[in-house]
Design a protein that fits this description.
With 75 residues, the chain is mainly α. The chain has one domain. 48% of the residues lie in helices and 0% in strands. Helix 1 crosses helix 2. The radius of gyration is 15 Å and the shape is elongated. 1% of the residues are buried.
């Protein structure tokens, strides 16, 4: 929103440690990381990448594991 010239504080409201961006909110934010790790543990997903570029490459690939498909739908 800052890039749209909206007068907002760019600092992440979840952790207060970095500027809000897609990469920060989903992958670098300490709070978001805790949520991602919890979800991955709940779905028994140890092979899911945690970097934006890797996620974008990983998502379109078909998976036979129903837990992985369910996790993809949640994204």
């Amino acid at each position: 929103m800052v890039s749209w010239c909206v007068d907002l504080d760019p600092i992440c409201l979840l952790c207060g440690e970095g500027d809000e961006s897609r990469n920060h909110l989903y992958f670098d934010c300490s709070f978001s990381s805790m949520v991602w790790r919890s979800l991955m543990q709940q779905f028994h997903l140890s092979s899911v990448p945690l970097m934006c570029a890797d996620i974008l490459h990983w998502l379109p690939n078909p998976h036979t594991d129903p837990m992985v498909r369910l996790a993809i739908l949640q994204l």
